[in-house]
Design goal:
With about 230 residues, the protein is mostly helical. It has one domain: Serine Threonine Protein Phosphatase 5, Tetratricopeptide repeat, CATH 1.25.40.10. The protein has nine helices and no strands. It starts with about 55 loop residues before the first helix and ends in a 13-residue tail after the last helix.
């Protein structure tokens, strides 16, 4: 009789969810709280936004605009942090009506949509950011979190691979990518076992991966970003 197996290792450790606490020298960092482990924080760095000399003037303009609009970013981030998602979304929409290409506010808006349960709209928002600013890794990371929540691990992996190509030093995406690879490995081992693979070889691997992928209590509370 064929052994019945579970093709998913139970509740997965979460990729980091958006946490509205970073400040605008534009490093995004946050601790865990979503289905891959890390969804990105509310502030996107502009460090990789302009990679050629031809775009240097645009970078200077964006930095100046970012400084001028820092209070708007902070207001929306604080609303998100307080759970006032609808207000955050309204404020972001009002801002973007006059500054439609601003990547930071568009990113915040994507987080607001995701927090409000408007998953498809959030996917559209983050996808459009990846098209308009392909140098930025953070929107790819947040797309991966959404895809992983939906169980679409292949698309999550592709998004995270794009994130680390764009910024090889992006630790958040590397960690999330490792978790995706582990979950894909679990699925492959489970399929092998279901199709007559060797239990003596496969069961220990499945157990190790299941233990690895279980939620950890120490990861439950997001730490403030610095």
């Amino acid at each position: 009789m064929r052994t019945s197996i579970q093709t998913h290792p139970g509740p997965a450790r979460r990729l980091s969810a958006a946490h509205p606490s970073a400040t605008i020298p534009r490093s995004i960092s946050s601790r865990r709280s979503a289905v891959l482990r890390r969804h990105e924080s509310t502030y996107m760095p502009v460090r990789n936004l302009f990679s050629t000399a031809a775009r240097a003037a645009a970078l200077a303009a964006l930095l100046a605009a970012g400084s001028a609009h820092a209070d708007d970013y902070t207001d929306v981030a604080q609303l998100l942090k307080s759970g006032k998602t609808q207000q955050a979304l309204q404020k972001a929409d009002t801002y973007l009506a006059k500054n439609s290409r601003d990547p930071q506010m568009r990113f915040l808006r994507g987080i607001a949509l995701s927090n409000d349960g408007k998953t498809e709209d959030a996917i559209t928002a983050f996808r459009q950011l990846t098209e308009d600013y392909p140098e930025l890794p953070e929107p790819y990371n947040n797309l991966a979190v959404i895809y992983a929540r939906q169980g679409d691990l292949d698309r999550a992996r592709s998004a995270l691979e794009a994130a680390v190509r764009n910024n090889p030093n992006y630790a958040v995406a590397h960690e999330n990518l490792g978790d995706i690879y582990a979950r894909l490995a679990y699925q492959s081992y489970a399929q092998s076992l279901a199709k007559g693979g060797r239990p003596a070889a496969l069961n220990p691997k499945l157990k190790q991966l299941k233990d690895l992928l279980q939620p950890s209590a120490s990861l439950a509370t997001p730490a403030p970003a610095r």
